[in-house]
Structures are given as C-alpha cells and as structure tokens.
Write a structure and sequence with these properties.
The chain is of the alpha/beta class and 225 residues long. It has helices spanning 5-12, 76-89, 114-128, 143-168, 175-195, 200-210, 213-223; strands spanning 15-18, 30-40, 43-56, 71-72, 100-110, 133-137.
Amino acid sequence: MDPFEHLRNILEKTEILKSPKHRLSTFGETKILYFYLSEVKGFKDRSRLRRGLVIAEKPKIITPDFFKNKFEGFDREAQDLGNWLSEKYSGSTRGLEYHFKNESKSVQIEHSSIKNLIKEIEKRIMDQELNQSAIIHGPDETWQIALMKFIMDECVASFGVNIKELDEHGFFESAEESLKNKRKMIEQLFGKAKKNHLYISMLGKKLQDFGLFKEYEDEFFNLLK
C-alpha cells in the first residue's frame, strides 16, 4: 500500500484558482498573499476563508534533500509531505534550494457558498490591485498540505527563470571558469584604460574585488605614469 496515497488525494482536490502575477524572485525575498477557501462540513451556505502570507526566501544552490525540512509554520502531516515532495520534484528542480514560511493572518466563516465567495475574493483582488496574491480552493482540515501544493507549483514554475538569471550572473561557473572570465574582464578594462584614463579607477576597483591586484600590480601602476 502506498503510504502517500492520502496525500495524493488531497493534492487532487486542490485547485489553484489564481496565481501571483510574478514568479519567485531570484535575488530577493518573495511575499505572496493567499486566500484559501474551503467548504464547512455540513453547511452548503457556509465557507471558511483563510488569509495569510507565504514568504519565499532568496533561492540558494540546493542540497540533494530539496524539500526536506524546508517548511516552518506547518503541522507534522504537512512536513511528511515535504519528504515525499523531495523525491517527486527534486529531479525537475535540480540546482536551487528554496525555503518557505507560512504566516497565517486570519480565519473566518463566511455566510456564502464557495462559488460566490470566489467571485467576491476575485473582485477584492482586482479592486485593490493585489497582483502578488493567490486564490486556492481545497480541503478544509488538510488546508496546509493544499497550500504546500500551491507553493510547489510556484517553485517549479519559477525554476527556469531563476536558473537562467543565476547562470547569466555566473553563479554556476566552476572556479576555473570564474577566474578565466574575471581575467578576461580585467584585460578588456586594461585596453579601455590605456585609451581613456577615466577607466583606471574602475579597473583598480575590479582588481581589488577579484583579488587580482597583486597579479596585475606592475601593469596597473604603469598606467599611472
């Protein structure tokens, strides 16, 4: 028997009705306001509305255990899902590590059906221009697991953009490649500085930043003569 069958059932019952306009940030923290809607058992004209923040920290280079122990503010069953997701998603998100935190803001019973409440929340989001927000419809008792499903979807959707931006900034270069590119930049700056002395201060700063000043010291001081 599959020990995670009940978790799969929860995920299948989860609907992401609205996703944030922007993906998870590559170089900073991302905050997503969520509205989680669920039916109140035994009441067709009652709905439960949970509101909170999902905070995604700046992504880091990942370890093999991608999703394990990466969630705060979630119960034990939700943490077990993190272990399962580590196996399910790690292959498609190789290269980055995300850390998420859930901050619940409010829980209230609404005298409304789910269908009408969805329309009301959609209008509220549009009126207040809450672009970085999400609407989620899922099970009531296991809402945290459904919320984690939303987080994983955002993570996977953001992965390609994050990897591309990090790659463009040289985060995945080997030490050898990084040093080669730094020397190439320094050589280009020397060429510019020989023609225009305004580049000398920029060149000196780069030499210091890259830890290459000693290597190019004589050549640099020759520019000042």
